[in-house]
Design a protein that fits this description.
It is a single chain. The protein is an alpha/beta fold and 427 residues long. The chain is 32% helix and 20% strand. It has twelve helices and 20 strands. It has helices at 16-24, 76-88, 108-120, 132-141, 153-173, 182-196, 203-212, 244-249, 283-292, 311-321, 360-364, 391-404; strands at residues 3-8, 29-32, 41-45, 48-52, 65-68, 73-74, 96-99, 103-104, 200-201, 217-220, 260-266, 269-271, 305-307, 309-310, 325-329, 339-348, 351-353, 367-374, 408-412, 420-422. The longest helix is centred in the middle third of the chain and has 21 residues, at 153-173. The protein is globular. It binds inosinic acid. Inosinic acid is lined by residues 12-13, 38-40, 125-128, 130, 132-133, 222-223, 227, 236, 238-239, 272-273.
């Protein structure tokens, strides 16, 4: 099983970190291929809780080469903080490689993120304010800076002179706010460049060697399919492609090398930020599920919106990604419920829809069609095998697999590593 793609099947926060941590133990190379420090992975490893935003969770395994791929946008300040935090815990980062093609979040990007959000008023997206959208926009406009540019001070200076003129003009004339100082940025980023230099490489030969040698490679997705720039709930999406296709362009791995796509799905639904979420539970019902699932963001601490499992979203996401195997997370959170709902369709203007409509306002007004299943009413936190799960719980999982269209091979029943049931190991 040399190459596997792991994607979030919903709106992010599916619990990918734990699954990656489990798979990384048998993986030679983990590649982060899109997004930036808008992501947050919580991993409980050897009893210690780690929160990663940029560094692939595989860093905890010294034999796993951790690659930050070309498709990411990287805030070098945040990366250094993560490297330092790991060093404080005695964790070595010598096996970290950063693609010189990855784009950088510049000091002005988070500010533009915030100013643009404020300018949108009631239509704001609820971004993480990490500068992700502005950095990807600059990449597309070809005025972005790549990590490799840090090793070319004269180029940086010349380009920044031009780019900062554009940025400062907008800050001054449109937003009427302070401008950025060119020298200050150059000084700061050249110091950062010196510290990051040992990690920066052209990853093309590294990835190609790994493929040629049949190494196990895991493409670690961030966010989720419904936040995809093309297939998500646009414009309430992130600025990258967190789908299987994005994993390939973000790493330089060709489609023919991919052996399996693993979709991570939470046993219910959550979302942060604004935008349609047809199965959202509001009021006390929402509060109950949020508390039970401890649904507060790793990156921003924001309370997540929560709701019943949305099978319309899950099936769509499974098809868009080509999911072969499902890792189902947080199943234990539903243990207290007498009945559990699964959404299998949306009603809109008298019509039944089996996949999410691209028209965002239709989706916003879609009424979920639910199936109800009996709950299991007992804790499953200690379940170690499929047989340990109560019958009603097994039936819920089997129904989810049917709705998603792929088998639930990994089932997570708690935060720690040993609270995981493997019906079939992906590799
Ligand atoms: P941005 O990626 O910061 O531009 O935010 C755009 C949307 O994606 C917002 O709704 C964010 O809350 C959401 N988002 C970005 N990253 C994540 C993530 O890792 N998990 C969940 N939601 C995310």
């Amino acid at each position: 099983m040399p190459v596997a793609i792991l994607v979030g099947g919903q709106w992010g926060d599916e619990g990918k970190g734990k699954v990656i941590d489990i798979l990384a133990a048998k993986t030679d190379m983990v590649i982060r291929s899109q997004g930036g420090n808008n992501a947050g992975h919580t991993v409980v490893h050897d009893g210690v809780t780690h929160k990663f935003h940029l560094i692939p969770s595989g860093i905890l395994f010294p034999n796993c080469l951790c690659v930050i791929g070309n498709g990411t946008v990287l805030d070098p300040r945040v990366l250094l903080q993560e490297i330092d935090a790991l060093a404080d815990q005695g964790i070595n980062t010598d096996h970290l490689v950063i693609s010189d093609r990855a784009h950088m979040i510049m000091p002005y990007h988070p500010l533009f993120d915030q100013l643009e959000e404020e300018a949108r008023g009631d239509d704001r997206l609820g971004t993480t304010y990490r500068g992700i959208g502005p950095a990807y926009s600059d990449k597309i406009r070809r005025i972005g800076f790549r990590i490799g540019d840090l090793t070319k001070p004269r180029f940086m200076e010349k380009k920044l002179h031009f780019v900062l003129r554009l940025k400062n003009e907008i800050l001054r004339d449109l937003y009427r706010t302070d401008e950025f100082d060119e020298k200050q940025i150059l000084d700061e980023y050249s110091a950062i460049g010196e510290r990051l230099a040992p990690y920066i490489q052209d990853i093309f030969p590294i990835v190609q060697d790994a493929l040629r040698e049949d190494n196990n490679v895991l493409l670690e997705g961030a966010q989720g399919a419904l936040l995809d720039l093309d297939f998500g709930t646009y414009p309430y999406v992130t600025s990258s492609s967190p789908t299987a296709g994005g994993a390939l362009t973000g790493s330089g791995i060709p489609p023919r090398e991919v052996d399996m796509t693993i979709g991570v799905f939470k046993a219910y639904t959550s979302r942060v930020g604004y935008g349609p979420m047809p199965t959202e539970l509001l009021g006390v019902e929402g509060d109950r599920l949020r508390e039970l699932g401890a649904e507060f963001g790793t990156t921003t601490g924001r309370a997540r919106r929560v709701g019943w499992f949305d099978g319309v979203v899950a099936n769509y996401s499974s098809l868009i990604n080509g999911v072969d195997s499902v890792a189902l997370t947080k199943l234990d959170v539903l243990s207290e419920y007498e009945t559990i709902k699964i959404c299998t369709g949306y009603f809109h203007k008298g019509e039944l829809h089996r996949h999410p409509m691209s028209n965002i306002s239709h989706l916003k007004h879609a009424e979920p069609v639910y199936e109800e299943m009996p709950g299991w009413g007992t804790s499953i936190a200690d379940a170690k095998t499929w047989e340990d799960l109560p019958g009603a719980c097994q039936r819920y999982v089997e129904r989810l697999a049917e709705v998603i269209g792929a088998p639930c091979d990994i089932i997570s029943v708690g935060a720690s590593r040993d609270q995981t049931i493997f019906r079939k190991l992906p590799y």
